[in-house]
Design a protein that fits this description.
By secondary structure, this protein is of the alpha+beta class. It is built from ten helices and ten strands.
Amino acid sequence: MRSRQCTRVLNRPAPWLGSYEFKLRLIFDAIRHGQAFAVAARAGGTVRELHRIAPGRMRVEHDPATGEPSYKLNGQTGGDRTYRWADVVHLVPVPSDGAPVSLISLAREAIGFASTLEKHGARLFGNGARPSGILSFEEKLSPVEIKNRVAVWNAVHGGGRSGGTAVMDRKATYTGLTLNSVDLQYLELRRHQVLEIARVFRVPPHMLAEMDRATHANSEELGLQFVAYCIRPWCDLIEGAFSRVLFTEAERDNHFVEFQLDDLLRGNILQRFDALNKAIGGPWLTPNEGRAVENRPDIEGGSKLNLPQGVAAPNDAPAAVEPPANLRAVA
């Protein structure tokens, strides 16, 4: 019953807030501010709702002897309110003994350089403002004369007539403009900055539409790297924070919170199931051990090895013990 209640809380943390939006706002707070908070609203000792708290309103204090944290919420209309660690979901992606460290601050130089490149590109290509050349004259011309000579030049050499031979009078000089080395490497620099920022968040380049090194052969492996090195650390962080608040110390022995990532691993599911089938079919894993790999509940009689025909079980084999079935709350 407790597991069902936790699942309901995770599916709708508050009447005005859905599960996806709730987790999205927590992750955004953690990335931007270096930490995120949510307070548990209890009724009869059971968590009924989870309320997100803006990072600026919560202050964390640690016991100097044990390091146990306590949380003080800055009340907008009244005084501060203190919460125990068991009542606060606290996400800290970058551990620090001092002020919280945000991932954006770690990437501030890379993000600033990328922003500078954007402004440079806007100035370089905006409205076609860059001329192809300069037509100069030794004598000073009036605005009307400048306009007439430019019109004549464009009529002779503009549009489809470009590339011809230019004939200049004695007082006119034409100087062509070319892109300098920085301008020529603009796209290469922008691509490099995408990779620089992606490194901080451990996002594979192909997830950001940077497909230069992505092929049909390695796309599946790149997807697995995205799950393993980018998504999974965040899932572990959130799962641990939710488990501390939703379950008591005794309940954490056989209850846990878990993100279902099967959709992201769908391309590899056939290989995984084939390996489990071979392991369970031989004298290595029991059916229940194989089911535990996929977080499936145990079945009756599933703790016995499937020995090949004609092979007797060893005399010193330990007796099969049916482990308690784990209950999980799906995040």
